[in-house]
């Protein structure tokens, strides 16, 4: 059976980008067709300046939202990365497989490292090595597929390279995974800056729709979205990125294709209004279910405890095999 792994990192409140690019597809498609594991990858949230209490709070919120969106613990494994030691164990072996040059080339390292330096902060070593930990997240489970938004493609490519290299040097140990993307909205852009990805840690956030925003806030943010010059509603990512973003969001919410939807509108205002209502309708049940689940933290804990046990059981044999293959003496 196909195995799938993917995750969300608790660096901010989850966004419409996280939902359309990843979470929604995990719920609607992936958990039904494969043996799937979905994780709150909290160790990744420590790679930039962080507030410990906030990370803890956001981790719980992300797990609760994953369940609220419809991940079903009877069908898939939902867990928190730091509860399963195999991720960090394997990460070290993969650091011994990766070269520093290939990590310095990662776009996210260059962008986030640049932001940290500009803010006068030091760049954590873990920001450089985080794609190796992500490779460990995936390879520990022998995942065949990694459903992610487009921004994660480069990291999955690195994961593939490390798996192939490890297998060639030390004998076949890892499945070589591939990234999969949703058909539309694989890269949702910031509503105030359609040249940048909608990212959950971006401030101040007027261009970011959060999954827990109330309906009026969602409407306001979408109605104030930056659009492009001209009056004609057409789908042109290069010349009309603001409009293209709205059309992709609408297409992802309602089905259909962004270029075909464009033909149905003769004003930007009408497109914004329909997009806003479509997003409000899409997110309402998630927000309502989140409120119910958040009122029962012990229930969420029970799911996460079981998830971590299952994940550990799946990861340990492969990670132990990697320890032996690379030349480490078994414990005596
Ligand atoms: N804007 C986006 N459009 C489509 N997919 C997106 N994803 C993230 N942003 C968009 C996908 O969501 C999943 C979880 O992402 P992550 O938590 O690993 O972090 P990220 O990719 O770095 O996303 P963010 O929200 O932008 O976080 P920050 O601001 O902290 O960097 C992934 O599958 C991702 O592709």
Describe the protein in words.
The protein is built from twelve helices and five strands. The chain is mainly alpha-helical and 332 residues long. The two termini are 35 Å apart. Strand 4, helix 7 (153-170) and strand 5 (178-180) form a beta-alpha-beta unit. The longest helix is centred in the last third of the chain and has 30 residues, at 297-326. It has two domains: 3-181 and 296-326, Rossmann fold, CATH 3.40.50.620; 215-291, Tyrosyl-Transfer RNA Synthetase (Orthogonal Bundle), CATH 1.10.240. The structure holds adenosine-5'-tetraphosphate (AQP). Adenosine-5'-tetraphosphate (AQP) binds at residues 8-9, 11-12, 15, 17-18, 20-22, 148-149, 151-152, 186-188, 197-202. Residues 8-9, 11-12, 15, 17-18, 20-22, 148-149, 151-152, 186-188, 197-202 line the site of adenosine-5'-tetraphosphate. L-tryptophan binds at residue 137. This is Tryptophan--tRNA ligase.
The assigned structural class equals mainly alpha
Going by CATH, the architecture of the largest domain would be 3-Layer(aba) Sandwich
Number of helices: 12
Quaternary class:
single chain
**Strand-residue proportion:** 5-15%
**Number of folding domains?**
2
CATH class of the largest domain: Alpha Beta
Can you say what the CATH homologous superfamily of the largest domain is? HUPs
Radius of gyration: 20 Å
Largest sheet descriptor: 3 strands, parallel
H/E series: EHEHEHHHHEHEHHHHH
Q: What ligands are attached or bound here?
A: adenosine-5'-tetraphosphate
> What's the total number of strands?
5
CATH fold name of the largest domain: Rossmann fold
Q: Within the largest sheet, what's the order of strands? A: 1-2-3
Helix content: 40-55%
Low-confidence stretches: none
Mean pLDDT: 96
EC number: 6.1.1.2
Keywords: Aminoacyl-tRNA synthetase, ATP-binding, Cytoplasm, Ligase, Nucleotide-binding, Protein biosynthesis
Subunit structure: Homodimer.
InterPro entries: aa-tRNA-synth_I_CS, aa-tRNA-synth_Ic, Rossmann-like_a/b/a_fold, Trp-tRNA-ligase, Trp-tRNA-ligase_bac-type, Trp-tRNA_synthetase
